[in-house]
C-alpha cells in the first residue's frame, strides 16, 4: 500500500463484488494503471457493500471524500442508480455542479458509459467511454499539473478519449488498448478450491451479431497474444488455481491452438465462459471441450439466441441447427454436468413460428445432450436463460422497437408452457419490465438523472416515480426510432459509421449476412479508419 505523501490519490469504485465477479478485473486494471505512476496511488472502494465501511477504501480505510479522484467502473446500466446514492452516503455532493474545491473529481467508464453516459452526466465531472490504458495515464498527468477544481477540469478537457461535462464539444472517441498486456486476477480466493485465476484473452468480438453491444461498440476487436496470455496465466498455474479464459470471442482468437497447446504444457486446468456452438462443432472446439471437461468444468454455456434458421440470419448468428446439436452431443460425451442455453425473445421480425422453432430447438438439444450421457449411465442438467431482446446503442438494432410488456409476457408464457411439457428443463431470465427499463436507460438523456437520484439506490425504481416523471414511459421503448435521427448516445463515437449501421439494419430486414470484420485489413465500417490504437 502506498502512502498519500503528496501523491495524487484515486479511489476506484465498482458496484460489483470485488472478489467474485468480473467487476474486480476492471478494478484491478485501474489500480494497476494508477499505481504504475510513482506520483499517484490507487485504493479500492467496496461499492457493493451496504455497511458502514462501504465508503472507506479496503487498503487504508480512508474515506472516499478524502481522495482527489473517484474512478467508477460501470459495467451495466442498472448500476447507474447506485451512483448518486453512494456519493451522497460518502458525503460527496451528488451533482457535479454542487461540488466545491475540496470534493473529489468523479470520473466514470465501463461498458454502460460506452453505450450512453447521458443519464448520469449530472453526477459526473468527466467520463471515458473507451479503454482505460490510453486515457487514464494522461488524465493523471492533467490533474496533477494544475491546482484548483476549475483549472483541473480545463486541463482534463484536452485529454484524448475523455469527456468533461460542460467543457467537451462534440462526441468523444472510444480509444482502444494498444498494449499487449491482458488483465488477470484471482476470483473467489476464499473458496475451498482456492478460486479461479482469470485472464483476459481479448476485447470486443468480430462475429457481427446485430444485437450485440460488445461486438459493435468495441470495434475493432483486439486479441492479446498467446505469449502474454500464457505469461499472465503462469501466476495462477504456480498457485495451483484453475485458469479462466475470459473474452467475448475466445473461439475466434487467431492464436487459439498455440494458446491451448502452451497452457497444456503448463498443465493448466482451464475454464471458459459462453462459447459459440459453431465453434464447438469444429475439431479445435471439440479439443477445447475435452480440455475443459478434464479440467473439471461443471457448466457449459451455449449462446444459441433463437430457434429458427431465418431468425439466426436476421441477427447474423453463424451457428446452424446441426452445429448446435453437434455441440450439445459432444458436450454430452464429457464429464460436464450442466448445459446452459442463452435464448432471446422479441427479436426484430420475430413471428409465432419462431417461438415454436425455439422450443423445438430446446427439445432437440435436450435429446442430443442427454442421449450419450444415458448410454454411460449419467444424468445431466439442462437450463435455459430466456431474456427479452433489448435494443442497444451503437448496434444495427439500436432503433428497433421492443414489444409491449403484455406481449412479451404472452410470448414468454408460450415458451414456458412448451418447455414444461418437455420436462427436465430449468428456466430463468430477465423480466420484461426490467428489460424495458434497461432500454429506457439506453434511450434517455440527462432528464433521467432525477429518477436515478430519487430512486435512492434502488433499481427498478418505484412505478409511481417513473410514471410521475415520464407518464407512459413504455411508449418510449416500444416505438421504433427513425434511422438517422438524433439519439442521446451520439456523444460517444465508437468509430463505426451511421451509414454502415443502417446498411446492416437493411441487410437484417432481408435476412442477409453482412461482411466479415477483418481488423487492420478493412475500413468499410469506419472503426479501422484512423483507428486510435
Description:
The protein has 533 residues and is of the alpha/beta class. Helices cover 35% and strands 15% of the residues. The chain has 18 helices and 18 strands. It has a six-stranded mixed sheet with strand order 2-1-3-4-5-6. A four-stranded mixed sheet has the order 8-9-12-13. The two termini are 32 Å apart. The mean pLDDT is 93.
Q: What descriptive keywords fit this protein?
A:
533 residues, Rossmann fold, six-stranded mixed beta sheet, four-stranded mixed beta sheet, 35% helix
Estimate what percentage of residues fall within beta strands: 15-25%
Helix/strand class: alpha/beta
Q: What general outline do the C-alpha atoms trace? A: globular
Low-confidence stretches: none
Computed CA radius of gyration, to the nearest angstrom: 23 Å
N- to C-terminal separation?
Answer: 32 Å
> How many runs of DSSP E, i.e. beta strands?
18
Secondary-structure arrangement, i.e. CATH architecture of one domain: 3-Layer(aba) Sandwich
Number of helices: 18
What number is the mean pLDDT? 93
CATH fold naming of one domain:
Rossmann fold
Spatially, the strands of the biggest sheet line up as: 2-1-3-4-5-6
Quickly name the level 1 CATH class of one domain: Alpha Beta
Q: Largest beta sheet, briefly?
A: 6 strands, mixed
**Helical fraction:** 25-40%
Amino acid at each position: 500500500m502506498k502512502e498519500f505523501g503528496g501523491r495524487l490519490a484515486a479511489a476506484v469504485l465498482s458496484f460489483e463484488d470485488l472478489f467474485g465477479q468480473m467487476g474486480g478485473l476492471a478494478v484491478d486494471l485501474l489500480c494497476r494503471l494508477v499505481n504504475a505512476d510513482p506520483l499517484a496511488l490507487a485504493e479500492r472502494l467496496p461499492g457493493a457493500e451496504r455497511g458502514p465501511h462501504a465508503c472507506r477504501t479496503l487498503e487504508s480505510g480512508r474515506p472516499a471524500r478524502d481522495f482527489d479522484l473517484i474512478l467508477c467502473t460501470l459495467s451495466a446500466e442498472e448500476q447507474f442508480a447506485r451512483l448518486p446514492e453512494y456519493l451522497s452516503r460518502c458525503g460527496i455532493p451528488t451533482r457535479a455542479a454542487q461540488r466545491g474545491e475540496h470534493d473529489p473529481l468523479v470520473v466514470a467508464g465501463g461498458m454502460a458509459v460506452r453505450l450512453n453516459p447521458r443519464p448520469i452526466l449530472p453526477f459526473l465531472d468527466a467520463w471515458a467511454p473507451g479503454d482505460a490504458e490510453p486515457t487514464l495515464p494522461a488524465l493523471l498527468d492533467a490533474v496533477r499539473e494544475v491546482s484548483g477544481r476549475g483549472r483541473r477540469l480545463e486541463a482534463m478537457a484536452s485529454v484524448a478519449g475523455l469527456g468533461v461535462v460542460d467543457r467537451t464539444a462534440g462526441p468523444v472517441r472510444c480509444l482502444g488498448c494498444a498494449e499487449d498486456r491482458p488483465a488477470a486476477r484471482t476470483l473467489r480466493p476464499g473458496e475451498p478450491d482456492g478460486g479461479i485465476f482469470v485472464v483476459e484473452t481479448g476485447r470486443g468480438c468480430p462475429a457481427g451479431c446485430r444485437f450485440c453491444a460488445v461486438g459493435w461498440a468495441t470495434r475493432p476487436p483486439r486479441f492479446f497474444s498467446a505469449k502474454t496470455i500464457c505469461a499472465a496465466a503462469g501466476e495462477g498455474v504456480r498457485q495451483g488455481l484453475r485458469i479462466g479464459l475470459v473474452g467475448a470471442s475466445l473461439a475466434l482468437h487467431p492464436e487459439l491452438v498455440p494458446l491451448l497447446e502452451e497452457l497444456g504444457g503448463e498443465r493448466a486446468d482451464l475454464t471458459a465462459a459462453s462459447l459459440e456452438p459453431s465453434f464447438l462443432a469444429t475439431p479445435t472446439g471439440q479439443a477445447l471441450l475435452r480440455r475443459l471437461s478434464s479440467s473439471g468444468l461443471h457448466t457449459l454455456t451455449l449462446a444459441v439466441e433463437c430457434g429458427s434458421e431465418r431468425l439466426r440470419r436476421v441477427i447474423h448468428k453463424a451457428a446452424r441447427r446441426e452445429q448446435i446439436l453437434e455441440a450439445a452431443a459432444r458436450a454430452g460425451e464429457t464429464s460436464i454436468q450442466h448445459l446452459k442455453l442463452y435464448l432471446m425473445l422479441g427479436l426484430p421480425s420475430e413471428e409465432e413460428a419462431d417461438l415454436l422453432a425455439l422450443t423445438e430447438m430446446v427439445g432437440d438439444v435436450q435429446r442430443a445432450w442427454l442421449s450419450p450421457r444415458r448410454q454411460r449411465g449419467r444424468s445431466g442438467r439442462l437450463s435455459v436463460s430466456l431474456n427479452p431482446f433489448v435494443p442497444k446503442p451503437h448496434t444495427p438494432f439500436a432503433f428497433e422497437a421492443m414489444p409491449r410488456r403484455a406481449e412479451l409476457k404472452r410470448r414468454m408464457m408460450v415458451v414456458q408452457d412448451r418447455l414444461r411439457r418437455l420436462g427436465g428443463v430449468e428456466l430463468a431470465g430477465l423480466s420484461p419490465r426490467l428489460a424495458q427499463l434497461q432500454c429506457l436507460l439506453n434511450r434517455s438523456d440527462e432528464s433521467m438523472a432525477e429518477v436515478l437520484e430519487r430512486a435512492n439506490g434502488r433499481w427498478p425504481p418505484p412505478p409511481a416515480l417513473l410514471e410521475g416523471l415520464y407518464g407512459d414511459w413504455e411508449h418510449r421503448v416500444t416505438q421504433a426510432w427513425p434511422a438517422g435521427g438524433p439519439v442521446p448516445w451520439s456523444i460517444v463515437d465508437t468509430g463505426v459509421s451511421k451509414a454502415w449501421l443502417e446498411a446492416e439494419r437493411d441487410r437484417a430486414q432481408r435476412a442477409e449476412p453482412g461482411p466479415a470484420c477483418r481488423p487492420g485489413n478493412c475500413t468499410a465500417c469506419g472503426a479501422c479508419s484512423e483507428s486510435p490504437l
